[in-house]
Design brief:
The chain has 16 helices and 19 strands. Helix 13 runs antiparallel to helix 14. The longest helix has 42 residues. 34% of the residues lie in helices and 21% in strands. The chain is α+β, with helices and mostly antiparallel strands. It is an enzyme of class 1 (oxidoreductase). GO terms for molecular function: cytokinin dehydrogenase activity; FAD binding. Its cofactor is FAD.
Length: 530
């Protein structure tokens, strides 16, 4: 007779427990909704000269690499440095329990989502409207520019004063803050070092929202940390960059080699002598048909008959690319210097091609290719680039294996290869380079056909890159990646080697909550750094 009462109690208890569970889950849902809705709301309360965009954020989840897409919660369009500082300081004050992070985005030329911030804030650095660009023409000329300024604009403005930066990248439609966060390398680096070796002063917003001016003499640790620091220690909002007198014209030269040892010997000679070219690069040519005929649109062969008889198909060739700067009133002298420098080189005689162009045409040469590729819809494709810094003592081993076995049939874009002098790099900066006095940049600048499953497809190129990296590791070549990409902190520790402890210490000093540049995947927010 007691069973109905027991049954009634059980039913009541079950109903009570079920109600508690529903109430508990409802509270969690409300809390989560409040948490996520409060993130954009708290940003909306900030007093800024610029503005946030919370709706049109998709373009900030894309970059030149075209392989990673992480949507941010908001894009900041700053009008002043204080807008950036206010935003970062607000996120810093939210503490470690907030997932918000911040990424500075320049012209969107990252390769692996480094300038993206998943559910965080992306700063559109090109919106930054600080003081206008200022060129100082004193005894030690420099240009004072925003971190969001493009190098091509710096070139045009500084040329009005007969000046130009000393060190460049091959492509000029990049922002100052973007290249200085990496290094900035081109064919002038053998003489002037990378772009980070030619900076007088920086203005930086740290991961705490502090605006700090720094140089070699003032706040020097922050100055050197930020240069080559992959965006980990602060957002570069302004820079003073060293200038030199600019030439009007350039003698642009290409010659070919069919032997790597001879090619590299001539490159090493040119970067070591006093009176040499102003720009020294090189590239690898894999199985290209009618190569010299293609050059005729931009270059003139010294011997047209011999050049027309040269066959490039089926071969791996090495092109030495050189430039001599000059002004028209010193043309004869420049011709003599070029002739003297070429006379000691051992290139294939029939492959000497020359061109004379303006200084701007030469420096902005890659943009011409960009325009052509954009017109064909071939610019916004995946770019699985691989950039390596290889010690001089290992470059022959590398070339024999990679150009002899791994890349035998075709390449999917330019392969650059040229040496630089370590003495022109400042070892106090954050950039990681090989230990030897001379090392090579080897850059595989591949483009993938999105729908292809063949040798020009993304998977094939990535597999090829993996084979190259595996060989470098197995052979213990001491290679370092430039524009590095790793996915675990263990890999980053290996990359930095003995520099890791110092790098981690700098992070804990200038960005202790790991708010900045999460797309590099070096540190995670609220996880210890050491």
């Amino acid at each position: 007779m007691k069973y109905p009462a027991v049954s009634f109690l059980v039913q009541n208890n079950m109903f009570f427990i079920r109600s508690l569970i529903i109430l508990f889950l409802s509270c969690i849902t409300v809390k989560l909704n409040l948490c996520f809705s409060s993130i954009p709301y708290s940003l909306k309360t900030l007093n800024l000269e610029g503005h946030f965009n919370f709706d049109e954020v998709h373009h900030a989840a894309r970059d030149f690499g075209n392989r990673y897409q992480f949507l941010p919660s908001a894009i900041l369009h700053p009008k002043s440095v204080s807008d950036i500082a206010t935003t970062i300081k607000h996120i810093w004050e939210m503490g470690p329990h907030s997932e918000l992070t911040v990424a500075a985005r320049g012209h969107g030329h990252s390769l692996h989502g480094q300038a993206q911030s998943h559910r965080g804030v992306v700063i559109n650095m090109e919106s930054l409207q600080g003081p206008k660009m200022q060129v100082n023409t004193g005894n030690f000329p420099y240009v004072d520019v925003s971190g969001g300024e493009l190098w091509i604009n710096i070139l045009h403005e500084s040329l009005k004063y007969g000046l130009a930066p000393k060190s460049w990248t091959d492509y000029l439609h990049l922002t100052v803050g973007g290249t200085l966060s990496n290094a900035g390398i081109s064919g002038q680096a053998f003489r002037h070092g990378p772009q980070i070796s030619n900076v007088h002063q920086l203005e930086v917003v740290t991961g705490k929202g502090e605006i700090i001016s720094c140089s070699k003499k003032q706040n020097s640790d922050l100055f050197h940390s930020v240069l080559g620091g992959l965006g980990q220690f602060g957002v570069i909002t302004r820079a003073k960059i060293s200038l030199e007198p600019a030439p009007e014209k350039v003698k642009w030269i290409r010659v070919l080699y069919d032997d790597f040892a001879t090619f590299s010997r001539d490159q090493l000679h040119l970067i070591s002598v006093e009176n040499t070219f102003d720009y020294i690069e090189g590239f690898v040519i894999v199985n290209r048909t009618g190569l010299l005929n293609n050059w005729r649109s931009s270059f003139n062969p010294q011997d047209p008959v011999q050049a027309s008889q040269f066959k490039s198909d089926g071969k791996i060739l090495f092109c030495l690319e050189l430039a001599k700067y000059f002004n028209p009133d010193k043309n004869e002298r420049a011709n003599q210097e070029v002739e003297n420098s070429l006379s000691v080189l051992s290139y294939i005689p029939s492959t000497l091609f020359l061109s004379e162009v303006s200084y701007i045409q030469f420096l902005d040469r890659v943009h011409v290719s960009e325009v052509k590729l954009r017109s064909k819809g071939l610019w916004e494709v995946p770019h699985p680039w691989l950039n390596l810094l290889i010690p001089r003592s290992k470059i022959h081993n590398f070339a024999e294996e990679v150009f002899g076995n791994i890349l035998m049939d075709t390449s999917n874009g330019p392969i650059l290869i040229y040496p630089v002098n370590r003495s022109k790099w400042d070892n106090r900066t954050s950039v990681v380079i090989p230990e030897e006095d001379i090392f090579y940049l080897v850059a595989f600048l591949s483009s993938a056909v999105p729908t292809s499953t063949g040798t020009d497809g993304l998977e094939h190129i990535l597999t090829q890159n993996k084979r190259i990296l595996e060989y470098c590791e197995t052979a213990r070549l001491g290679v370092k990646q430039y524009l590095p990409h790793y996915t675990t902190q263990e890999e980053w520790r290996t990359h930095f080697g003995p520099q890791w402890e110092g790098f981690a210490q700098r992070k804990s000093t200038y960005d202790p909550l790991a708010i900045l540049a999460p797309g590099q995947r070096i540190f995670q927010k609220a996880i210890p750094f050491s």
